[in-house]
Specification:
Two copies of one chain form a homodimer. Chain A has 194 residues and is mostly beta strands. The first copy, chain A, contains four helices and 14 strands. Chain A starts with a strand and ends with a helix.
Chain lengths: 194, 194
C-alpha cells in the first residue's frame, strides 16, 4: 500500500557539503548544507542550495566562489556545528580548531583536515523560494591519500565519508556494496534479445 | 598528504533517481540518473541533471513534468537497466515487468513497485554544458508502508533504498548511523561559551 505524504521534499541519500567562503572582512567561514549534488559532467559542476538569510549567502555572491569539503566520521561533530551556528556571531574555524587554507584557484578557503576538497567558481543560480540553488564549476579537487585505493581511485568507505539522512536526522557511514553499476541491469538486455 | 585530482566532479553519496516520463507517443519511459539532489525546501524542489541527447530530455520539456522514483535493493537491477538502455529502442517497463502508474498531479508516470515516488512539475532549468539541470517542484510524494517507521517517519534503511557510488561504480545499501544531526555539533557551542 502506498501512502501520500503530501509535498515533503525528501531524498535519500544526501551528501554532507561543508561549504567554505571568506566573509566581507576576509574571515574564513563554513556552512554545512545537505541540499545539493552533482549538476553536470562537462565542465564538472556542483549544485548547493543556500537560504538567502544565511551569512554565507552574500559571501558566495561577493567572491563568486566557494569550496565544498566532505567530512569523514572524525569531523562529523565539527560538520554538524558548522550547520547549526552562524559566522555572524562565531568564528567557526577558531572554535573547532580546523584549518582554513586559501584556495589555489578560487577566492574561498578549503578545510585542511577534511579528506576531500573541491574549489568552485560560481557559474549559475536559480532563485527557488526558500533556497537559492547555486551552481559552481569545479576548478580543482584535492583528496587525502587516505581516500585513494591501490589503483588511485577514490574509495569513500576507506575514509568513512559521512552522509546525511534527513528523515531520521542522523549521519550515516557509507553502506555495503549491493551490486555493480552499469552491469547488474544487463540481465534485462539479454532478456530483451538485444 | 593531499593530492590534486584535477577537475573531476565527484561527490559522495549520490542518489539513484529513476525519472519517469511519457514520450511523444504517450509511452511510459524511465531513465536512471545520479546527478541531482534536493534543491529547495519551500516550495519543495528537486534537481536532476539530464544530457540533452537522452530520450527523456525532450519528454521532460514537452510535459513540463517528471517523476522521481527511489529503488530498493529489490529493484537495483531494473534501475541499472533504466540507466544503460534508451527508450528510443526499448520499452523499458515491458522488459522489466514494472508497472507505470499515471501521476495524480502531473503528466508523468510513477513506478508502482518502487517504494518512494515523487511527482514533479518542471519550474526551472540551467544549461550547464554536458547536462541541463532541471528543477522540479514537488507536487506529491507517495511512500510504501514498508518505508515508514512506527512513528510514520521515513526509514530508508527499512526499505533498503540504494545509493550510487560513482567512484567505485557500485550501488550501496544505507550505511550505519554514526551520529545525530543538529546535535553532535553542540559540543562546540558549549566550548564557545555560548
Amino acid at each position: 500500500m502506498k501512502k501520500s505524504l503530501g509535498t515533503q521534499g525528501l531524498l535519500f541519500p544526501n551528501p554532507v557539503l561543508v561549504v567554505g567562503t571568506y566573509d566581507k572582512h576576509g574571515e574564513p567561514n563554513a556552512i554545512t548544507l545537505a541540499w545539493g549534488g552533482v549538476a553536470s559532467s562537462g565542465p564538472e559542476a556542483i549544485s548547493i542550495a543556500v537560504r538567502p538569510s544565511r551569512y554565507s549567502f552574500e559571501a558566495i555572491l561577493r567572491a563568486g566562489a566557494f569550496t565544498v569539503n566532505l567530512p569523514s566520521i572524525e569531523q562529523a561533530a565539527a560538520a554538524d556545528f558548522f550547520g547549526i551556528s552562524s559566522g555572524r556571531q562565531t568564528r567557526k574555524f577558531e572554535v573547532t580548531g580546523l584549518t582554513p587554507v586559501r584556495g589555489e584557484f578560487v577566492d574561498a578557503p578549503y578545510i585542511a583536515e577534511f579528506p576531500y576538497n573541491i574549489e568552485c567558481r560560481l557559474v549559475g543560480s536559480l532563485d527557488l523560494g526558500a533556497h537559492t540553488l547555486f551552481v559552481g564549476e569545479v576548478k580543482d579537487v584535492k583528496a587525502s591519500e587516505d581516500l585513494l585505493d591501490a589503483h588511485g581511485a577514490l574509495d569513500w568507505e576507506k575514509a568513512a565519508i559521512i552522509t546525511f539522512d534527513s528523515a531520521q536526522r542522523v549521519y550515516r557511514a557509507p553502506g555495503q556494496e549491493v551490486g555493480k553499476a552499469f552491469s547488474i541491469g544487463r540481465r534485462f538486455i539479454a532478456a530483451d534479445g538485444a
